[in-house]
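Quick review question:
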């Protein structure tokens, strides 16, 4: 692991050195638009991310929380499938089986994720490379967006450094899907804005492909919100921001152009994201209640951004007051949902952009305020209005993800401000300098006051770490001092720009340093090492037979997690974002869970009860199992199983149910296991009489069955499992997982991306030929 980190650091150093040797100062306008200067800026961004995570890349620490519990193990499973020439469909090692391919944030059909899964031999090194690559890609996308907005290279670097060290990348580092969505967002906005301004449909084709790509490995919330955000962005560009420089006048057909752009965005984007989202809507029905829209109260109240957390703009330390523990400052939310820090200079420049009268900038500010109001969830009615008016927004929770757009908009406003700031050298406006200095002083005072108020409200008896105080006072006062000296004319242009860039590097590096508790952890290192050293790529389950444990092995942690996937050990109780209330009841009941663990977990019955999967029926079923001391068979039709996902997940009382009293105790079935793979199960069973076999693997719509070569319907059993009918005598039972339409959708998605990518390469090649042919 050390050699891997050393190679990365050495490569960044060599690239930086080669770029620096041929550079002239940033203040030279002929160079600030040159390729070498932009390459140098990109190198600084990449080096900041890699050096900020050096402890992780050097093997001294490991990813923390969801990254080590969920995303890294599933990345290793996707890599195992990819190297075997397969796509991940069914995961039999967690939660008695799970259709993980249909969870969009897993990224099972993402070409970007699969690329890293294939090319890196060690899947856990591959996960780190994928994570860091997303982070760096996010910074480069922001830099290109700033360049598109006519920001100079030094300003683009300053803003991109703030973006990379913002509260999403640091606080949500554990959520790889969130990082994927956030990292590609500036790329999407860049290409969409180009399409609007240049009346070019090719730009929106690129934006659509990027949106779809982000959806294949991203969190569903941003996937749903991105088109809404782009629609508002387009309205501002075409109808509100007509006076903004660099905006071409809109024609009389601007409404037609706007509608066409949105239709292209949706058509191509949906084609790309279809494998994940069509599968989610079809293959999770009956498996999880997340297959339907979420309850309003749950959607608005889970994962909110506390209003007081807006004070975290002052310091990257403040959100750490909400780390797990008995004295959390905002116990209603998670530490990852309570950070909006975006950097000192981005805050300065973002607000200073409003000093210039512009309807477009006012529209951006209004969009940021709207997103901020939605981020606080049920604290304000705005998120509720969105829930009521736009049905797709009912499919995700975590209102705090709306802060994505607040941070992005502040970076965009900052790009306009640095453009104004750079032009002020030509106009030499003392009034503009004075206004900017006064505003910077006001923002710094507000930051210091906010820090004190947030800290004081925590009522914690611990002192602020010295480095956090040094960053707070040193960073904000240094920014004010630089602005003051610039206002007084005491700084040359070279010195000023170098000071701003150095301050941005210090600020970003300090934010990464202070945010280490949510980036990685030495406490997770032992689990990481066990997964790494005991990882097996074998996808066969037959060697372990029917054996399944209740929890993962102790060396992988004592709370629910998916780390057992790396060592291919089947468990019943794991971490799962695809919740099911009946499955949760099993985990809470030792008698019920015992039927699905151990080596004897196939059951036979010829006297089942037929009941729909409702809460009241489950209660009666559980009582009968406890009374008999043995499992009984309750059967459900596929339609009934799928209907159970549409019921209100919070309704526990208003259901009346029938009694499964006619069901008799089941008997263990002695089977001969012939083949057990992730997507297929084949075994023999000799039945003394006709009846049903219950396989204690989870039911899902994509499972197909045959008995002695004849197709049989896969029924729901005991609310979450599968059952197939068998006849008297020998029975060869085959169960295969074949989700309908998935492979064609993957082909459609990848072909769309390949066509867009191929055409873009052709554009690049044509551009190079044109440049080469010029005298």
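Suggested answer, residue by residue:
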């Amino acid at each position: 692991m050390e050699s891997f980190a050393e190679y990365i650091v050495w490569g960044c150093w060599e690239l930086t050195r080669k770029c620096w040797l041929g550079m002239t100062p940033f203040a030279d306008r002929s160079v600030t638009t040159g390729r070498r200067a932009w390459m140098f800026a990109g190198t600084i961004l990449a080096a900041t991310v890699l050096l900020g995570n050096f402890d992780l890349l050097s093997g001294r620490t490991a990813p923390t929380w969801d990254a080590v519990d969920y995303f890294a193990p599933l990345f290793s499973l996707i890599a195992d499938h990819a190297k075997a020439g397969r796509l991940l469909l069914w995961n039999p090692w967690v939660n008695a089986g799970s259709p993980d391919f249909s969870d969009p944030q897993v990224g099972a059909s993402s070409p970007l994720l699969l690329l890293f899964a294939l090319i890196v031999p060690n899947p856990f090194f591959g996960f780190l490379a994928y994570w860091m690559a997303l982070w760096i890609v996010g910074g480069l996308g922001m830099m290109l967006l700033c360049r598109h907005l006519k920001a100079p290279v030094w300003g683009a670097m300053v803003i991109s450094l703030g973006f990379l060290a913002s509260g999403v990348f640091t606080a949500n580092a554990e959520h790889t899907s969130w990082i994927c969505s956030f990292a590609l967002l500036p790329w999407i906005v860049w290409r969409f804005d180009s399409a609007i301004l240049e009346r070019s449909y090719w730009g929106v084709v690129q934006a659509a492909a990027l949106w779809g790509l982000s959806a294949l490995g991203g969190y569903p919330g941003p996937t749903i919100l991105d088109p809404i955000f782009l629609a508002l962005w387009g309205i501002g560009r075409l109808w509100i921001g007509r006076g903004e420089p660099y905006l071409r006048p809109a024609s009389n057909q601007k409404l037609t152009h706007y509608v066409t752009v949105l239709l292209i965005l949706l058509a191509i984007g949906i084609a790309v994201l279809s494998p994940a989202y069509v599968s989610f809507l079809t293959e999770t029905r009956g498996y999880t209640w997340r297959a339907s829209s979420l309850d309003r109260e749950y959607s608005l109240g889970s994962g909110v951004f506390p209003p007081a957390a807006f004070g975290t703009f002052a310091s990257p330390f403040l959100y750490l007051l909400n780390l797990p523990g008995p004295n959390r400052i905002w116990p209603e939310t998670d530490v990852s949902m309570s950070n909006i820090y975006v950097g000192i200079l981005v805050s300065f420049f973002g607000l200073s952009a409003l000093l210039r009268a512009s309807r477009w900038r006012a529209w951006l500010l209004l969009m940021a305020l709207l997103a901020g109001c939605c981020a606080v969830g049920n604290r304000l009615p705005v998120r509720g209005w969105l829930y009521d008016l736009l049905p797709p927004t009912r499919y995700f929770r975590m209102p705090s993800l709306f802060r994505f757009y607040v941070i992005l908009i502040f970076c965009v406003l900052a790009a306009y401000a640095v453009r104004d700031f750079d032009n002020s050298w030509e106009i030499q406006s003392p009034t503009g300098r004075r206004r900017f200095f006064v505003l910077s002083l006001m923002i710094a005072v507000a930051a210091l006051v906010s820090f004190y108020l947030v800290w004081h409200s925590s009522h914690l008896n611990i002192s602020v770490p010295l480095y956090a105080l040094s960053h707070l006072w040193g960073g904000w006062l240094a920014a004010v001092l630089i602005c003051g000296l610039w206002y007084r004319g005491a700084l040359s242009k070279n010195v000023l720009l170098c000071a701003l860039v150095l301050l941005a590097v210090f600020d970003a590096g300090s934010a990464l340093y202070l945010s280490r508790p949510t980036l990685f952890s030495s406490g997770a290192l032992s689990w990481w090492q066990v997964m790494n050293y005991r990882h097996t790529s074998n996808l066969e389950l037959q060697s372990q037979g029917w054996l399944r444990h209740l929890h993962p092995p102790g060396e992988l942690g004592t709370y629910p997690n998916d780390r057992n996937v790396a060592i291919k050990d089947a468990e019943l109780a794991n971490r799962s974002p695809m919740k099911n209330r009946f499955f949760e009841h099993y985990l809470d009941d030792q008698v019920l869970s015992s039927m699905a663990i151990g080596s004897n977990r196939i059951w036979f019955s010829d006297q089942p009860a037929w009941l729909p999967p409702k809460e009241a029926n489950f209660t009666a079923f559980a009582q009968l199992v406890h009374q008999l001391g043995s499992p009984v068979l309750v059967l459900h039709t596929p339609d009934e199983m799928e209907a159970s996902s549409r019921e209100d997940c919070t309704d526990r009382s208003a259901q009346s149910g029938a009694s499964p009293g006619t069901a008799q105790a089941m008997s263990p079935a002695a089977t001969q296991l012939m083949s057990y793979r992730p997507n297929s199960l084949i075994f023999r069973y000799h039945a003394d009489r006709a009846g049903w076999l219950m396989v204690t693997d989870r039911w899902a719509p994509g499972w197909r069955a045959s008995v002695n070569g004849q197709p049989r319907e896969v029924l729901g059993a005991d609310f979450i499992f599968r059952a197939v009918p068998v006849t008297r005598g020998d029975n060869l039972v085959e169960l295969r997982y074949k989700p309908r339409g998935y492979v064609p959708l993957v082909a459609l998605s990848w072909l769309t991306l390949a066509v867009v990518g191929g055409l873009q390469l052709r554009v690049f090649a044509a551009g190079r030929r044109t440049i080469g042919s010029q005298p």
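Why it works: Residues 590-648+655-737 form one domain. Residues 289 and 645 are 4 Å apart (CA to CA).
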